[in-house]
Design goal:
The complex is a heterodimer of chains A (about 400) and B (about 400). Chain A folds into three domains: about 5-95, Butyryl-Coa Dehydrogenase, subunit A, domain 1, CATH 1.10.540; about 130-240, Butyryl-CoA Dehydrogenase, subunit A, domain 2 (Beta Barrel); about 255-385, Butyryl-CoA Dehydrogenase, subunit A, domain 3 (Up-down Bundle), CATH 1.20.140.10. Chain A has twelve helices and eight strands. Chain A has helices at about 5-25, 45-55, 75-85, 95-110, 110-125, 240-250, 255-275, 285-310, 315-320, 320-340, 355-370, 375-385; strands at about 130, 150, 155-165, 175-180, 190-200, 205-210, 220-230, 235. In chain A, the strands form two sheets. Chain A has a four-stranded mixed sheet with strand order 1-4-5-8. In chain A, α3 (about 75-85) runs parallel beside α7, α4 (about 95-110) packs antiparallel against α5 and α7 packs antiparallel against α8 (about 285-310). Chain A is globular. With about 400 residues, chain B is of the alpha+beta class. Chain B folds into three domains: about 5-120, Butyryl-Coa Dehydrogenase, subunit A, domain 1 (Orthogonal Bundle), CATH 1.10.540.10; about 120-220, Beta Barrel (Butyryl-CoA Dehydrogenase, subunit A, domain 2), CATH 2.40.110.10; about 230-380, Butyryl-CoA Dehydrogenase, subunit A, domain 3. Chain B has helices at about 5-25, 25-35, 40-50, 70-80, 90-100, 105-115, 230-265, 275-305, 315-340, 355-365, 370-380, and strands spanning about 120-125, 135-140, 145-155, 165-170, 180-185, 190-195, 205-215, 265, 270. The chains are: A alpha+beta (about 400), B alpha+beta (about 400). Chains A and B meet through α7, α8 and α12 of A and α1, β9, α8, α9 and α11 of B.
């Protein structure tokens, strides 16, 4: 059992850190530490330019195969990249849905024509993707999708109608992947299709959702006979659920250590603040600061265990606690930040509703335990899949 | 980066699991609880002679197995899982690191040799109060040696130890100053060892009463007069990591035996394992057990780095506090939830979950509870004056 990265991974770390130091500056100085969760609405144009800059230098999609422009980077290298990226204050990656979800799904399940059509623009940082899964009546119960896809034999196109919700960056995205029902008679995870839809068409309407932070990074997306070519379905009609679930499987993994580096940045801010304002003399806050520190360190080693794999089949089980663990930890950090700020936590930066970074984090972390599977859903999954407890009974619809 | 057991480490873990699950059954634990020493001496002979676990952290040059804290943690995770009653923790996790870190070469050969032969050793470091590092043994040092007087409390397996390493404070010193460590044989004149009745009967503690115990200078660990307060703190950090290992095993088993019970228990026409209120508690318990395990393996790796000279005492202290704080609360949480999940039978003596609950409480208060360790981390984070 080893705690450290190899010498070659450490050399790669230096290469990444040096490139970021030399390039994440000048016109990009303003977006350092910006655009992360809760702040995804900020600096969109600058972050698009940054995405292309990363693409030119070969720093997008580093885990992809070389055939598709990646570096075929090892898990360790991807971890190192994400750590250094976050440490340097790299802005929230506006291309991350394409890079980490759509791209790997196409590489695994797409046709050669689909790969050739979509992968290069993700790799170069030009195409931004968004995710069309959740619907008003399909939240935790994701399979309860009502959006319909009807095939027009004559025109050889699909017509998509329905509503998606919680779609991040929809108004900035060129493409959306959409789960829609291809068989109107089917229920649940049967009779679904997985479509790649061009967002720039008359059948697509986007409405931002104002959040408790006063900002909007989520949207409602309405499809009214939006057109999708017959060539742009991944898998066959009826296989949409399998593709959709496979896509989510790519979500967990190497990016989590980068996420933890962002958490570390936030935690460091709280420690500095406590030292400045005297909160560091409050015994209860000292306990909670130490507890947050312990929680973050253990998060790292939970992740390293999962990424290192396990010979005893525990891999699956260990990985399953991750979402519940980090979201609960981060939500607690938000409250800790406010308690360290004290009475000043109530005072905003400016009218009308300019939150500082910690205030914004405090409010937005309430979403952490909801999106991507609520804590309650996570606990069901852990109990049923990792601990082998009986499955929840399902209703009739 | 390979943050997982090697094949050899898996073998060590599996061997320990197979052995302990067979010898430390519920009946065996309950039998050991009734014995004067709190363990079966025949079983200890088997552990120390056949399994040779006390040799795990002893260097090969001195006749040990020369393995590290990852291997020790893998083993103690299993002993903790099955509530093994034995002086292994006291000997291998308290006395051995004290000897390795503080004793001279000659002393190491002598005293580690005695441990390899199967003798029981332990450490007396605790004062009358449970909190803080007060030491109530006074050392009056003269040219002929030392005279120890006072009380050392909470000495793990003190009543059956062949020798004890006793921490003492020199007379007329204050604070951290003047701390010294001494080898004291249990049959030394002036030493009375009083067994203390304990809430957790699987793990025995004793009080040492020292009344003019006269020792030679050769019995001073290291042989030369120097303050060993920092050294003791490091020894206790290594010990705390070993205790975390038993806590992780206990936290896991508290979950496992509870799930086994609730899958059988039927109410309202279905097993209670099918109710969300029950499932969610189990999910939280799994999160605690797995996270405690990650913290433990991290701390065990740091302990090995420390012993190899690759990291400093601050790093070790941080890792020990992270692991001990988290695993203390994880084990207690899981054992407490375990009783609740068992329902009424959880509070009977017949079911084993109560034994885990008592062990959880005992290990939590041993070598610093979670809040003491958090405060230690808070000092590192907040009082260092160094801006992150």
């Amino acid at each position: 059992m080893k705690l450290r990265f190899s010498a070659s991974d450490e050399a790669f770390r230096i290469e990444v850190a040096n490139w970021l130091r030399d390039n994440l500056c000048g016109e990009f100085e303003s977006i350092r530490f910006r655009g992360g969760p809760g702040d995804e609405h900020s600096f969109v144009e600058e972050r698009k330019a940054w995405e292309r800059k990363l693409g030119e230098a070969g720093w997008t999609c580093i885990g992809w195969p070389q055939d598709w422009g990646g570096r075929a980077a090892s898990i360790e290298q991807q971890v190192v990249f994400n750590e250094e990226y976050a440490r340097a204050g790299g802005p929230g990656r506006i291309g991350h849905i394409g890079e980490t979800l759509m791209g790997p799904t196409l590489i695994a399940y797409g046709s050669e024509a689909q790969k050739a059509k979509y992968l290069p623009s993700i790799r170069s940082g030009d195409a931004i993707w968004c995710q069309g899964y959740s619907e008003p009546s399909a939240g935790s119960d994701l399979a309860n999708v009502k959006t319909k896809a009807v095939f027009d034999e004559q025109a050889q196109v699909w017509h998509i109608s329905g509503q998606k919700v919680w779609t991040s960056l929809a108004h900035e995205s060129q493409y959306c992947f959409v789960v829609a029902r291809t068989d109107p008679q089917a229920k649940g995870h049967k009779g679904l299709g997985f479509f790649m839809l061009d967002m720039d068409q008359p059948g697509v309407t986007i409405r931002p959702i104002e959040q408790l932070t006063g900002t909007s990074e989520f949207n409602e997306v309405f499809f009214d006979s939006a057109v999708c070519s017959a060539d742009d379905i991944v898998g066959k009609p009826g296989e949409g659920w399998q593709v959709a679930m496979a896509l989510l499987g790519f979500e967990r993994g190497v990016s989590t250590l980068g996420q933890q580096m962002l958490f570390q940045n936030e935690f460091n801010d709280i420690v500095q603040l406590a030292k400045r304002n005297g909160a560091d003399r409050d015994p209860m806050l000292r306990q909670r600061i130490a507890e947050a520190h312990i929680g973050l360190r253990i998060m790292r080693y939970n992740t390293l265990r999962v990424l290192s794999g396990s010979d005893q089949g525990e891999l699956q089980a260990e990985g399953m606690i991750y979402k519940l663990y980090w979201s609960s930890w981060h939500r607690n950090l938000g409250k800790l930040a406010m308690d360290v700020m004290g009475a000043d936590s109530e005072i905003l930066e400016a009218e009308p509703y300019a939150l500082n970074r910690l205030q914004s984090m405090f409010l937005f972390t309430r979403a952490d335990t909801i999106y991507g599977g609520t804590n309650q859903i996570q606990r069901n999954l852990i109990a049923e899949r990792a601990l082998g407890m009986p499955r929840e009974p399902r209703g009739n619809n | 980066m390979e943050f997982k057991f090697t094949d050899e480490q898996i073998m060590i873990r599996d061997t320990a699991e197979a052995f302990v699950s067979e010898v430390s059954t519920s009946a065996a634990v309950r039998n050991a609880m009734l014995m004067p020493a709190g363990y079966d001496a025949d079983l200890w002979r088997q552990i120390s002679a056949d399994m040779y676990w006390q040799a795990l952290p002893i260097p090969e040059a001195l006749g040990g197995l020369g393995l590290g804290y990852v291997e020790l943690a893998a083993t103690l995770e299993q002993t903790g899982r099955f509530l093994l009653c034995s002086p292994l923790m006291a000997t291998a996790a308290l006395a051995v690191p004290a000897i390795r870190l503080a004793a001279s070469d000659t002393q190491q050969a002598l005293y580690l040799g005695r441990i390899l032969e199967g003798q029981v050793a332990t450490l007396g470091y605790s004062g009358i109060q449970t909190h803080g590092s007060d030491i109530n043994v006074q050392a009056n040092v003269t040219d002929q040696g030392v005279c120890l007087n006072g009380i050392s409390r909470h000495v793990l397996n003190g009543q059956s130890a062949d020798f004890i390493i006793v921490a003492a404070k020199e007379t007329f010193t204050s604070g951290e100053q003047g701390l010294s460590l001494w080898f004291v044989d249990s049959d030394t004149q002036g030493l009375a060892i009083k067994a203390l009745p304990t809430m957790d009967q699987t793990r025995r503690l004793a009080e040492l009463q020292l009344d003019n115990v006269v020792l030679s200078p050769q019995q001073r660990l290291g042989g030369v007069a120097q303050c060993q307060a920092e050294l003791l703190s490091t020894i206790l950090d290594l010990a705390a990591i070993a205790v975390s290992a038993e806590q992780v095993g206990g936290a896991q088993q508290s979950l496992d035996i509870s799930i086994a019970y609730i899958k059988e228990r039927v109410q309202f026409g279905r097993t209670i394992a099918s109710y969300q209120a029950i499932k969610h508690k189990c999910a939280d318990m799994m999160l605690k057990a797995e996270s405690a395990r990650s913290g433990l393996y991290y701390a065990a790796c740091i302990a090995d780095e420390f012993l190899a000279g690759a990291c400093d005492t601050e790093t070790l202290a941080e890792a020990a506090s992270i692991s001990k704080a988290y695993s203390s609360e994880a084990f207690f949480f899981n054992a407490g939830c375990g009783i609740q999940l068992h329902g009424g039978v959880g509070i009977t003596s017949e079911y084993d979950i109560q034994l885990y609950f008592k062990r959880a409480k005992a290990l939590e208060s041993f070598l610093g509870n979670a809040s003491e360790h958090r405060e230690r981390l808070a000092k590192q984070l907040l009082d260092s004056g160094v801006m992150l």
